[in-house]
């Protein structure tokens, strides 16, 4: 007999074990209680109870806050571990997949840091290799994730669900449900908001305005361009984009334990299997890319009856999306036309014919310059009057 099961909206929420607490929270509180009880057992013969409570109460409250507190949907103990891990990592990182070469002595010895008192202290720079989740993007738009597999990003159009009839809404839900049932590998639907740049539309309107067949159309185009320019300067324009991210692992992955993700034992087994299998071959990577392209085609076919258009991104567009995700507050919106971090930017050589004339400063006095200047001729006077 079937029985309905309630699924929480947050599918990444950890399972509740006891008293609405997760196993992680119970472990933190239990270890803290055992440590405090053991310390009181050892020190109660020499330390009075009020003195022990002065030390134990702040520790217990801190442990309870770390275990029960949350910030942006993440527990405070995880944030504390992330802060400690970030503090222990190298401060200077460079994009060097081939390895980091030692910096020259003259460079490391000349770098100084000035503190608040104005004293200069010498600090050595020890750069470390920058390891990013994405190692590169192919010409076809496939994102190379290294040993974690490959991924592909596509833009999905939206459908106005509220304006449909009940029958059409049921058809849309059924079409989307068929796609969800066909998923056999990781898929992520990402809805993000980004800044809307209207500079190109404004320039196109102003360039096309003189060529319109009627003066009123030209005035309307210029007025609309002025309105868009004013709107861009006065408000922070945003646009919403729906991305479909398909990921294909190269190695076989085990099942995920529970809603909270893989257990520590499963993660340890995956790490051992990864070290045992060794490096990823080119054949396995091409097979993963082939499966990824096939899955993208299946998504396009299954979502097209619902009116959703799937458009895969090329290399430049995928790179721009990754750059925006890493730095969403950039003043310059990333685009496919921007140069990459490893590209060399060159400029054309200056043409000697285009060099501006060199003006030499005269050392003669004002009277000498007036006397040396020629008298204006009739031709000069006529040209000046005509102008």
Strand content: 5-15%
Straight-line N-to-C gap: 98 Å
Largest sheet: 6 strands, antiparallel
- How much helical structure, as a percent, in the residues? 40-55%
The SSE string, one letter per element, is EEHHEEHEHEEEEEEHEHHEHHEHHH
Q: Catalogue the unreliable spans.
A: 113-122, 255-261, 357-374, 376-387
Q: Structural class, from helix and strand content?
A: alpha+beta
Overall shape: extended
Which oligomeric form is depicted? single chain
Cα gyration radius (Å) = 33 Å
Mean pLDDT: 77
List keywords for this structure.
387 residues; alpha+beta; six-stranded antiparallel β-sheet; two-stranded antiparallel sheet; 12 helices; 44% helix; extended; disordered C terminus
Describe the structure.
The protein has 387 residues and is an alpha+beta fold. It has helices at 23-43, 49-68, 76-88, 105-110, 166-181, 199-208, 215-234, 264-277, 282-303, 315-326, 366-372, 378-386, and strands spanning 16-18, 21-22, 70-71, 74-75, 93-94, 112-114, 120-122, 128-129, 136-137, 142-144, 150-156, 187-195, 238-248, 310-312. Among the domains are: 16-88, no CATH class; 136-196 and 237-252 and 277-326. A hairpin with a 4-residue loop joins β9 (136-137) and β10 (142-144). 7% of the residues are buried.
């Amino acid at each position: 007999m079937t029985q309905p099961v309630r699924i929480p909206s947050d599918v990444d929420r950890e399972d509740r074990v006891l008293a609405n607490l997760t196993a992680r929270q119970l472990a933190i509180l239990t270890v803290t209680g055992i440590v405090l009880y053991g310390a009181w057992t050892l020190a109660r013969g020499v330390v009075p109870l009020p003195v022990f409570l002065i030390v134990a109460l702040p520790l217990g409250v801190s442990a309870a806050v770390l275990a029960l507190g949350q910030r942006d949907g993440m527990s405070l103990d995880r944030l504390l571990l992330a802060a400690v891990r970030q503090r222990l990592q190298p401060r200077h990182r460079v994009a060097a997949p081939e390895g980091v070469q030692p910096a020259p002595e003259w460079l490391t010895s000349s770098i100084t840091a000035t503190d608040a008192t104005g004293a200069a202290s010498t600090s050595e720079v020890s750069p470390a290799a920058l390891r990013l989740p994405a190692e590169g993007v192919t010409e076809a738009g496939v994102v190379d994730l290294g040993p974690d597999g490959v991924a592909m990003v596509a833009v999905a159009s939206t459908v106005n669900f509220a304006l449909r009839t009940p029958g059409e809404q049921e058809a849309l839900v059924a079409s989307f449900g068929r796609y969800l049932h066909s998923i056999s590998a990781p898929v992520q639907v990402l809805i993000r908001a980004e800044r809307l740049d209207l500079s190109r539309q404004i320039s196109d309107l102003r360039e096309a305005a003189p060529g319109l067949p009627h003066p009123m159309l030209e005035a309307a185009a210029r007025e609309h361009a002025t309105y868009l320019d004013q709107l861009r300067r006065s408000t922070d324009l945003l646009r919403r984009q729906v991305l479909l991210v398909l990921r294909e692992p190269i190695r076989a992955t085990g099942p995920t334990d529970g809603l909270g993700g893989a257990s520590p034992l499963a993660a340890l087994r995956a790490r051992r299997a990864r070290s045992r299998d060794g490096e990823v071959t080119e054949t396995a990577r091409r097979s993963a890319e082939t499966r990824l392209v096939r899955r993208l085609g299946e998504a396009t076919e299954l979502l097209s009856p619902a009116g959703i258009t799937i458009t895969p991104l090329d290399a430049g567009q995928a790179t721009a999306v990754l750059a925006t995700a890493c730095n969403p507050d950039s003043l310059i919106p990333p685009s496919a036309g921007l140069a990459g971090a490893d590209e060399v930017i060159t400029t054309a050589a200056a043409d000697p014919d285009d060099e501006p004339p060199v003006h030499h400063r005269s050392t003669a006095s004002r009277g000498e310059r007036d006397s040396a200047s020629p008298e204006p001729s009739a031709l000069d006077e006529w040209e000046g009057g005509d102008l």
